[in-house]
Design the sequence.
């Protein structure tokens, strides 16, 4: 009972086909998850302005008086007409206070 080698089809192991089908099934969700994670951790935080403490150049746990002094100092510098602030800096400080 000799069989020809052309009629024999090697059987694919079940474990290999299972792994390949699993990888195919989870490839696109993994890519979408990675993209959403990147968007939430990198893109969104850059869209929001810094904290008002950073914009005013003071410590995070400053008192109300220090915050008011820093804002008055910054606004008097800009209102004096000596230095013209950029629009972006003006918007950042206006949104923070």
Sequence:
């Amino acid at each position: 009972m000799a069989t020809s080698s052309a009629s024999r089809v090697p059987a694919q192991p079940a474990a290999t086909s299972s792994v390949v089908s699993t990888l195919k099934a989870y490839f696109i969700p993994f890519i979408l998850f990675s993209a959403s994670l990147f968007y939430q951790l990198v893109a969104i935080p850059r869209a929001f302005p810094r904290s008002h403490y950073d914009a005013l150049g003071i410590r995070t746990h400053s008192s109300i008086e220090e915050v008011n002094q820093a804002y008055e100092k910054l606004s008097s510098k800009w209102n004096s007409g000596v230095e013209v602030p950029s629009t972006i800096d003006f918007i950042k400080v206006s949104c923070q206070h």
Q: What stands out?
A: The first helix runs from residue 14 to 47.
